[in-house]
């Protein structure tokens, strides 16, 4: 498989390694050391299997997940259910999360460029606009290959930054291996484990992936290419996430250092491992913010256009209007330092409901006659059953956590 044939899988990797993943993995490493590396490894396996099924649907049917929902769900009530969940979880959710993506990119850039006199005063409000315009420029090109190359570049940049930072922290390799081979649940770690799975297995990536491969490949050979792309890109993304967690474990857990936000990460590394570690971490955070700020609006446009029956063209008016709206909202939220807690809670509830519903739909569709010889195997269905159970548990725990947050 040539390098030019990669792409959709890299979009997914670029999407789930955002500032939220950086913070979640770092907090997990700082609080529990290497102990939860297994959770990220398991999350990566679940993500790869689920994304492979979604991509297979896209290749065989020639349609994205949103289009398949629209064509398969003949009941008006089911269509309304999916439409409501997609609007709430993906469109509204990505709008508020977009502010965090741009803020993360700004925090990373601040550590690298914040000492430049003419730039330092601009970071509070100006840089979210700069990164928003950059994401818009990537998407406005309207060429799938250009978008794929841009995001592949960002994934490679994150690999260099986060894995490089990990190596600079002089990790305990025996501790890393022990965590991957012996799965343990430290006390009070259940919410962190759920967060690690939740930040890797993301509903909107299923829409992004299936629509992207539907426009790129077809037939049995297309399924083969999509699988290769998925099973290289997703594990690379998982490796980056594990490197972030292990970096925090090496740097902060052993030293008893407490971190509370993304802004603490790079700053706290400098006294321990020098400016090289600080700048690499900051560069990775900036790249993570830009990659997620680009893929979140793109996924929202694919999902909404698909479910509404609108043309899923990168240059279409409706498609561009959707991603542009989400980008603008993200810039406003980030620039003004807003924290729309109630809207975020609403989006989390919708995501908690959407995940098992979407997993169930993908599992069902992968066993239909429309998939031909590419239907799920017995082994594939066994994996799907485990993932379905995991998504239900994850959904229940997520909803319970949101409920406790609201009522406390």
TrEMBL record:
* Subcellular location(s) per record: Membrane
Q: Output the InterPro entries linked to this UniProt entry.
A: NRAMP_fam
Q: What is its main location?
A: membrane
Q: Which UniProt keywords apply?
A: Membrane, Symport, Transmembrane, Transmembrane helix, Transport
**What does UniProt give as GO cellular component?**
plasma membrane
Gene Ontology MF term list: cadmium ion transmembrane transporter activity; manganese ion transmembrane transporter activity; symporter activity
One Pfam family hit: Nramp
Transmembrane helix as a keyword of this entry, yes or no, is yes
Membrane topology (UniProt): Multi-pass membrane protein
Q: Where are the transmembrane segments?
A: 34-55, 76-97, 122-140, 147-169, 189-208, 234-259, 279-305, 317-338, 344-366, 378-396
Q: What GO terms in the biological process aspect are recorded for it? A: iron ion transmembrane transport
Indicate whether Transport appears among the record's keywords: yes
Write down what this protein is called: Manganese transporter
Q: Which organism is it from?
A: Idiomarina baltica
